[in-house]
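Journal club side-thread
Mid-discussion, someone asked how the predicted structure for our own chain would compare to the paper's figures. Pasting it here so we can look after the session.
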Amino acid sequence: MTADAATGTRIRRIVLVLPTETYRAADFIAAAAQVDVEVVVATEHRPPLATEMESRLVVVDLDRPEEAAARIAAMADRTPIDAVVGVDDQGVLTAAHAGEILGLAHNPPDAVAATRDKAQMRGVLASWGVRQPDFRVLVPGADVAEAAAAVGCPCVLKPLSLSASTGVIRADTPADAVGVAERIRQILADHGRSPDEALLIERFVPGAEVSLEALLHDGDLQVLALFDKPDPLDGPYFEETIYVTPSRLGGPEQTAVLAAAAEACRALGLHDGPVHAELRVGPGAEGEATAWVLEVAARSIGGLCSRVLRFGTGISLEQLIVEHAVGRDVADSVRTDGAAGVMMLPIPRSGVLAGVDGLDAARGVAGVTGVEITATIGRRIDALPDGGRYLGFVFAR
């Protein structure tokens, strides 16, 4: 075992599965350094200046998660590994397979695979009776209008293979749904996917939408933060803009959200590591607070949104995830700061980003703690429903 020469203590080592396009590499790598955990990077392309960590870098194909996991496991023969964490959606299945091969704490690959396939997830949750929108899977050639009438209108259509609300569109009538399906198939083709893949159609659920961040400890859900989304997400597209925490929902509503999220995790078979869940909240048939599960992911919140969260003595969400992954006890960690929020800068229209103005004025607004532009000047940016990248983020406390 590798040990620190000065203290004689064993050095913990974690593999971070980092997709090339992730926003989150720097935050996770910095978090590991802050808690004295050495990082091994598994990514799709070798960085241009990788010589400094050549022995701690493995190039993998995240579209082939079992093969990628085998490459990570082979690396463990010369570099002992304590944990494997998938940072974004593209890497979570590779991390699950690697954890299974190496005998580390992990979510079952089948459970993670279900979170990566919207139709499969809906099917699993339905078989367990978890409350969620009524849905149908639209295979090629299916009668879209008939399916829309069956689930009820308004309804939402979405592709199975895209993320970040790309291609997610509301239709108000069965006839509208037919046109929406055709548009989604064009979006799939524009993204290099098969336009003939199955689509998901589900009943639109009105009400407040929230985002839950949590850690699973052997199946027990530790809530880390509950975000409100104060801007209405009623369509026709579903661009997320503002997240604020703590939630302003009442006690019964928050209890319903937590119960639904925990039930969804049990149904899917998730039991270790970070969870990001999206839910809608509203009155049920008897007027009681009710939560509908929209999404469950075996990862933490995307983009740079986690930067508004601090726990205990000021540690970040990424630090919590890293420490949990290597077996340290973080079960008592709670948020200790006040209200916080993040704004994902909306994209008014598609085009090439020519420049950014007003940064100093934005940073001077009371309560704003930072502004970061993540889009590249000179690069094309597509507004929803055609694209899913962000212009940047504004952080506030």
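Post-session note: The first strand starts at residue 12 and ends at 17.
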